[in-house]
Amino acid sequence: MSSNPDFDRWYAAKSARFVLEPSHRLETFGNTLVNYHLVSELDDYPGKIRVREGRLEAHQPLVITPRFQDVEFEGFGDEAREYFEFLKRSEEHLRILQYGYHLKSDNFSEQIVTDKLSVVVERVKQAVIASNDKFAAVIQCVDEPWDVALVELWLREIRRSAKGNIDELQARGKLF
After folding, report:
1. What phi-psi label fits residue 75: left (phi over 0), alpha (psi between -120 and 50 degrees) or beta?
2. 0.90 exceeded by the pTM?
3. Is the domain of 115 the same as that of 156?
4. Are strands 48-58 and 96-98 parallel, antiparallel or unpaired?
5. What range does the domain containing 40 cover?
6. Is residue 14, in this structure, part of any structural domain at all?
7. What is the DSSP secondary structure assignment for residue 41, as one 8-state letter?
8. Whose C-alpha in 1, 86, 88, 149 is 20 to 30 A from the C-alpha of 53?
9. pLDDT one-digit tens code per residue, 154-174
10. Cα–Cα distance measured from residue 53 to residue 73, given in angstroms and rounded to the nearest whole number
């Protein structure tokens, strides 16, 4: 790790390599357990590989409807006021999906093995594929701060799932 924590977080997020993503998107009408497998080489010990496993619980997405009539609006120019009035007139058509996640530490484990990083990554990937877990992910990441890769996983799964979740909510009349 460097002396700049902002850089470390940025680097951890950008260097996370998603080796295997869940084959299914997040559930629309229930909670989803995403099982993660993070593989990283220990910074000061080449050939020592840490494998972390755990799960993220994604809560059922909630549909949020804005309530513009409750907003006090003052100190803005005419263009902003007109835009706000447009939003107010259109609020019955505006919906936001809120995804809640919970990092479950009760199933968290880690182990250190001695091998090449690429070999361990492939071994973990093949084990996950063999398990047929449609909500499993394998990520190669930095050892510290490793949990930034979990935030990236969370963001990717929300982006990947949102359209399908919206389509399902719309089809069942739960969006509008």
Report:
1. left
2. no
3. yes
4. unpaired
5. 20-61+99-176
6. no
7. E
8. 1
9. 999 999 999 999 999 989 987
10. 48
